[in-house]
Design brief:
Elements (H helix, E strand, L loop, with lengths): L8 H7 L6 H8 L3 H7 L5 H15 L13 H11 L5 H5 L3 H15 L6 H15 L5 H14 L7 H24 L4 H9 L11 H5 L8 H15 L13 H13 L2 H5 L3 H48 L1 H24 L3 H8 L2 H14 L15 H5 L2 H7 L2 E3 L4 H16 L15 H7 E2 L2 E2 L1 H18 L2 E3 L8 H4 L3 H10 L10 H24 L6 E3 L4 E3 L8 H13 L3 E2 H12 L17 H12 L4 H7 L5 H11 L2 H17 L11 E10 L19 E9 L4 E8 L8 H6 L9 E4 L6 H9 L3 E4 L9 E3 L13 E4 L2 H6 L1 H13 L4 H8 L7 H23 L1 H24 L12 H35 L20 E2 L25
Parallel strand pairs: 7-15, 8-11, 11-12, 13-14
Antiparallel strand pairs: 1-4, 2-3, 5-6, 8-9, 9-10
Length: 986
Amino acid sequence: MPRRSTLSAAEREHLLALPETSEEFIRHYTLSEADRSLIYQHRGAANRLGFAVQLCYLRFPGVVLGLDQVPAPSLLAFVAAQLKLPALEWAVYGRREQTRREHLVELQAAFGFQTFALPHYRAAMSWLTEIALLTDKGMLLVQALIGHLRRHSILLPAVTVLERLSAEALTRANRQLYATLTEDLTPETRQGLEDLLTRREGSSLTRLAWLRQAPAAPTSRQVVEHLARLAAWQRLDLPADLARRVHQNRLLKMAREGAQMTPADLARFEPARRLATLVALALEGTATVLDELLGLHDRIIGKVFNAAKNKHQQQFQAAGKAINQQLRLFGQIGQALLTARTTGADPFAAIESVLPWEDFTASVGEAQHLAQPADFDFLHRVSEHYATVRRYAPAFLAALPLRAAPAVRSLLAAIDVLRRLNATGARKLPADAPTAFISKRWQKLMRTADGLDRRHYELCALAELKNALRSGDMWVVGSRQFKDFEEYLVPAQPFAALLAAGVLPLAVEANGEHYLRQRLAHLTQQLETINRLAAAGELPDASLTAAVLKITPLDAAVPETAQALIDQVARLLPHVKITDLLLEVDEWTGFSRHFTHLKTGTPAKDHALLLTTLLADGLNLGLTKMAEACPGSTPAKLAWLQAWHIRDDTYSLALAELVNAQLRQPFAAHWGDGTTSSSDGQRFRAGGRAESTGHINPKYGAEPGRLFYTHVSDQYAPFSSQVINVGVRDATYVLDGLLYHESDLRIAEHYTDTAGFTDHLFAVMPLLSYRFAPRIRDLSETKLYVPPGSPAYEALQPLLGGTLNVRHILAHWEAILRLATSIKQGTVTASLMLRKLGSYPRQNGLAVALRELGRIERSLFILDWLQSVDLRRRVQVGLNKGEARNALARAVFFHRLGEIRDRGFEQQRYRASGLNLLTAAIVLWNTVYVQRAVQALRAHGQPVDEALLSYLSPLGWEHINLTGDYSWRTKRATGKFQPLRPLSRP
């Protein structure tokens, strides 16, 4: 029998708790006509009330109300009100033990309730083991078991029995999982896996540690070294379909747990578990190395093209003076020739009148030398960097298990040709080498007198490979980010079943013709309305002339009375150390309990040490420096805590706890109801060891960096944060934050700036029940699209961009629904699919259909924007909250000069998560104390206008001490607030 506890004390208490909301009370405890008929067969008010209350407990939570138990007052009142009986009658019924037993037997017979017994235990064990193959979270298993028992009208046993049953099911599932992963392994593969725990020759690292190292920089040498890692993983020769035999969540959990183990820890595992853990590590490691290799290739090709482009521009700029001299000279010669033609003089003499013929001949040669290609293209300079690519290209192409869609079969055939040439050492391309993949831009460089140019052919193939992988036209077997497009989606048969049953988890109906008819009718109505308003000059705070759209800027000034209140409240807030603030917030919310041990699922024993580790992430101080600044901690202790207790999922749960607490704060309602949000990216420079991992975007200058993309609710709570590449458009990640957070927020409307929208995103957002409202810069350049057969909207002509291709949307409607369903169900992340669909050069049917659907939604939004000042104001207020939160984040993330210096992407994610958690804690703490400050002002007789409270903000940090030693109070008055500063202090 398993010894490990499945649930915490809080979870045990929550399991059998009664509903908390009125909606749940109505759903679970509303008595039907049949119920009432049976209840009224009993004599007396006490018997009827007692019988009904026992029935309610048997149904939910599914337990017998003990003879010594008193029903919850809320339930008693709810049932009594339905029966129109006084709740006090329970006191009479409660004394009749014999009657209660008789009623219980009658209820079980009438409604089929069964007492949990050994046969039920065995059946539940078999059912729950299948669930445990999908998840190992104790709470989820017990909740699933409780739901299963309730559906079969089986009364719940004691929580300890449920916990023991779940723990045993988990143990059985683990054994089944180990067997599935190891049963088909050959003796050679088993030995290869065991050898991963031994040290490499001439190194202090084990083979496993070396294989898990991430590349340091996008260089040819790093690609070659990483190819050696890929070859080592592939030599294990694991069965091809092994990763698909078990649930990915369980596989990933095993890999994470194994990654934290030392070789000595793994050696102590039972053989089946150790081998299965090594298999999970190998599967995860192979996919990771493949993705990292493809990422390195992508960045190297990007660097090569940027270097060629820069050199092309630099050469042109350096030759500027000489080019200008030649232009002036040829201008003079041209004028002399024109004059000679007019006067009938000798043209050659005219030239020599400007300069001697020998000098003219020399100037022509110099002009030809200075002249750039006719199309002014820098592509011819890419070949100057061929050596960089050639260092890794042969091994790179040989190692990749590539597959291709029909559209790029020519490219795959070209890669096969290059593989054969590399294998044989041949240099000349065969005469029948595939050329269909070569674009016009490359054609002029490819053709030579001797046939195809090998150098340009290979560079073109490698560049097109990069594009094809991005778009999904080509994929790599075993990769996560670059696998077959079809594998990302919900399988065709389950989707067809959902579609046929009409239960798609989307906010639109399955009938595309009906849906589009409604949207296009609405679009036509809006076009007519705005056309009429624009023609009459009646657009609110906007005007549309023949060439220019002008929208009056909104007044963002804060009233003087509001500013005075802001200053008064700020003076009242107590000065607090960041450590005391975290302790107080944790006392209110218990967010630290979510940082459970990866293996045992238990909370951290040293509470202060855990908070210290979180603070090291949030302040960007790092573990070593934090250990120096925090008495009683060491780098080793903090590193151990981080390895076992801090993960993406624990950060996500802890953040949700803080966001939910903010949602429940009464004062937060002055800022919003939690149904709107905004998102924005904040760039942090990559410095030190992380500089090579950063990306460059001209928008932010020439320094490499990372972007923290954060979603903020209208109540100022930052409910999601992601680390993204500064070169990727923000819109790619908008849906991830909305869909995959753990909080109770129910966002209905979302705001972004210009970088946060694309037509594809406009298309998908309504399908997933979100209203999308970006603030679009240069709105007049963002065109409207009209339905087929629309009349000429004369006043809107400057904004019209064309006619919608409705037939193309309908032709791909089911594919659109399948994509949206896959995103909604989490089969694939929204960012991955949007990145692929928006990648050059893919213009497949689904991408085009989504673009056309997005044009409908974008046009509707722009028309709404033109006539609704309230919408513009909502968007501005929402985005201002996000920008203000970024200012707080910049102030908090101040150590190491505010630079990211962690090379590993996982550590960079922890930095972003820690920062978001810390800012969420500050927002919650400030909200509580801002409310107390307002109450204090009113208590001292100072009137506070309710309308001004929305101008207050929980984002201030001047009163928070973020520097110095980070010490934790060992004794603290539980449940007490810190005193506000005196009202008289200026």
